[in-house]
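Onboarding guide, step 5: your first structure request.
Type a short instruction followed by the sequence, for example:

Predict the 3D structure of this protein.
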Amino acid sequence: YYGLFITFGAMDERNNKIRRRTRSNVGYDGLSRADRITRRNRVLVARWYYWTECRRLRSDDAIDRLCDEFFVESRTVTNTLLEWDGYFRELMEQRTSCRALAREYESFNWS
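The system replies with structure tokens like these:
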């Protein structure tokens, strides 16, 4: 038997404390989490309008596309569509063109 005699020394008191994560109300872009979710949901509804009304995609295929684009579950997409129904109706009533959507949301491909 070869015993290893290793001494680590005395433990500091500060190493025993539980470290907690801190949360900030503002993200890297200066917006709160709620503001970022609101922006995401607004664009998501605009993309729903694009895929279903401009591109005439079936609703289940449009949900799959939105899940891939926004990295969310299908339930999140459907909940957002239910919550933002007013904005979707506004897009429908105004018959918003793809060109108008491209001006408002420049980071997406609307063609």
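Each response can be followed by summary notes, for example: The helical segments are 33-54, 59-70, 74-83, 85-94, 98-104.
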